[in-house]
Amino acid sequence: MRSGPTRLAFAACALLAVAGCSEPAAGTDGAAAETEPPPAATAAGDEDAALAAYTGMWDAVVAASHGDQDASRALDDHAVGAAREIMRTALDEAAAGGTAEGEPVLAPTVTVESPELAVVADCVDDSAWRTGGATGTAGPRKVDATLIHDGLAWRVSELRIWEAGSC
């Protein structure tokens, strides 16, 4: 598996190779046709993709808490750095108490701040999600997430999960 910078370099080389071999668009004087979608379409696409990364992270964590080992590995597709470590630690603690039951209810909103940065504000109700025998700590809690775009995909990079009752 390639590392982030290597993947980015590979993607850039592939893009340049394709662009260098393309024919000029019909009806132009050799100038490349504009192929980028309008800014509004790009922003909406980035919002959807960033939100999919955030919810994908939670889906992987919930599935892993129910014993799905492949889902635990899928966490790497959606989270990196500190966010991934927080979720892995939570999974390790939950595994010590047995298999989880139920799942949290998410209510995320995403804001794309730049082509490389997005933030998610969420109020996660984990009252129906029992992990590791924990009792008395479940309930609606504020979750703040930062997502980065590495040139290929959005991934959650930072995550702060507040105490129960914070939203």
Fold and architecture overview:
The chain is an alpha+beta fold and 167 residues long. It has a single domain (38-161), classed as Roll (Nuclear Transport Factor 2, Chain: A), CATH 3.10.450. Helix content is 43%, strand content 20%. Strands 1-2-3-4 form a four-stranded antiparallel beta sheet. Helix 2 packs antiparallel against helix 3 (69-78) and helix 3 (69-78) packs antiparallel against helix 4. The two termini are 39 Å apart.
The radius of gyration over CA amounts to 20 Å
Number of domains: 1
List how many beta strands DSSP finds: 4
Architecture (CATH level 2) name: Roll
Proportion of residues in extended strands: 15-25%
Estimate percent helicity. 40-55%
Broad shape: globular
